[in-house]
Design brief:
Length: 257
């Protein structure tokens, strides 16, 4: 299950500094080095210019400093660093021991700095949106489009990829037509009086709950249709779309948060 990162993060207060060589998916280390070097170099210069590049306000220069200290800041498990609606709903610290073991091998987060991280990977807090272009490097999405595919496919193996990324992070890697057969994308629709629409908060919270439910249940569906059945068994209303270039879309329809 592939999740987007969160803009908000919980900065670790203590812990070892960043060690890129210790992260999962070691094939991504060269790309990670390039992104970290470019981000740190940007933030070691003019803070206000860096803030404009990072699209943060002039009152948020602490975020620039956070990136400047990326290599020496304390790290913690990624599932303790990422915060926000998706991760509040997932509530990883309260998962059962069995669900936490499943999360270690079935869950990954797409990151603009690290490409792909597992829950136990130790990372610092950072600020870098997926749509940012860094001086001397260019768009970070372009860096990951070139590097991310083999790592994603290695993580999936011969199983099903449940793609829960937002559109920004979907640009980091897109499946080939052959690969798309083993991809299920999930869209959450809020239905009120027969009218359906996408609402960001419902979308994020529901995705977090879906992931939590699948981890606790232990279901390991290998096709989009089986995934829809597993979600239905967990009490969700799910409609299966036709296969497309990004995979088979599942619409999860909710009436209340």
């Amino acid at each position: 299950m592939l999740l987007p990162p969160s803009e908000g993060k919980t900065a670790p207060r203590r812990g070892k500094p960043l060690d890129l060589g210790s992260l999962s998916s070691p094939s991504l280390t060269p790309a990670r080095e390039r992104v970290v070097d470019a981000l740190v170099a940007l933030c070691e210069g003019d803070p206000e210019a860096a803030a404009r590049t990072l699209d943060v306000g002039s009152t948020q220069l602490d975020l620039v400093d956070l990136d400047r200290r990326l290599r020496e800041s304390p790290t913690a498990r990624a599932d303790q660093v990422y915060a926000g609606v998706v991760y509040d709903a997932l509530d990883a610290p309260t998962l059962s021991p069995a669900a936490r073991r499943r999360a270690a091998t079935r869950l990954a987060v797409v990151s603009s700095v690290f490409g792909l991280v597992r829950p136990a990977d130790r990372i610092p807090a950072y600020r870098l949106s997926g749509g940012t272009s860094l001086p001397g490097l260019g768009p970070v999405a372009g860096v990951w489009r070139e590097a991310l595919g083999p790592a994603v496919l290695d993580a999936v193996g011969d199983g099903l990829l449940v793609d829960l990324r937002s559109s920004t992070y979907a640009a980091f890697w897109r499946p080939s037509p052959e690969e798309a057969r083993r991809v299920a994308t999930v869209r959450v629709l809020h239905e009120v009086d027969g009218v359906r629409k996408v609402v960001s908060h419902f979308n994020k919270a529901t995705k977090g709950r879906l992931v939590r439910g699948l981890l606790e249940d232990g279901a390991n569906p290998r096709t989009p249709a089986r995934l829809a059945e597993a979600l239905h068994d967990l009490g969700w209303t799910v409609e299966v779309g036709d296969p497309g270039p990004q995979g088979t879309r599942l619409d999860v329809v909710v009436a209340a948060l």
